[in-house]
């Protein structure tokens, strides 16, 4: 029985049964950045638009959010805290 929608296979390939078929695809390479989990609530229409944009651009939604946050901080003056 599948526990999740996708099953990792040897950390480099994954099989995704369901609407995407059962073809094997390469997993994303590891990022050089350490990421921490940050949960938030968004209006449903914003989340829907974000997911559609991520699919259209073939990028993860969190990557799009990181770019948007970086641009926001650049515009409004990121204050590095020590």
Describe the model.
The chain is α+β, with helices and mostly antiparallel strands and 82 residues long. The protein folds into 2 domains: 30 residues, no CATH class; 50 residues, Orthogonal Bundle (Arc Repressor Mutant), CATH 1.10.1220. Helix content is 37%, strand content 11%. The longest helix is centred in the C-terminal third of the chain and has 16 residues.
> Which stretches are poorly predicted, pLDDT < 50 over at least 5 residues?
1-14
Helix-residue proportion:
25-40%
Main sheet makeup = 3 strands, antiparallel
Q: Do you know the CATH topology of the largest domain?
A: Arc Repressor Mutant
Order of helices and strands: EEEHH
What is the CATH architecture descriptor of the largest domain? Orthogonal Bundle
Number of strands: 3
Strand content: 5-15%
Give the CA-based shape: globular
**Total domain units:** 2
Placed side by side, the strands forming the largest sheet appear as 1-2-3
Distance between the termini: 48 Å
**Overall pLDDT level:** 76
DSSP summary: helix tally = 2
Classify the secondary structure makeup into a structural class. Answer: alpha+beta
What does the radius of gyration come to? 16 Å
Short description:
The chain is α+β, with helices and mostly antiparallel strands and 82 residues long. It contains 2 helices and 3 strands.
Q: Which terms would index this structure?
A:
single chain, 82 residues, alpha+beta, Arc Repressor Mutant, 2 domains, disordered N terminus
SSE layout and pairings?
Elements: E1 7-9, E2 13-15, E3 24-26, H1 44-57, H2 61-76
Antiparallel strand pairs: 1-2, 2-3
């Amino acid at each position: 029985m599948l526990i999740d929608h996708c099953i990792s296979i040897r950390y480099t390939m994954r099989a995704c049964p369901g609407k995407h078929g059962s073809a094997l695809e390469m997993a994303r390479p590891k990022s050089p950045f350490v990421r921490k989990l940050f949960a938030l609530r968004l209006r449903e229409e914003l989340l829907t638009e974000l997911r559609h944009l991520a699919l259209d651009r073939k990028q993860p939604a969190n990557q799009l959010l990181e770019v948007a946050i970086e641009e926001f901080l650049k515009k409004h003056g990121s204050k590095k805290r020590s």
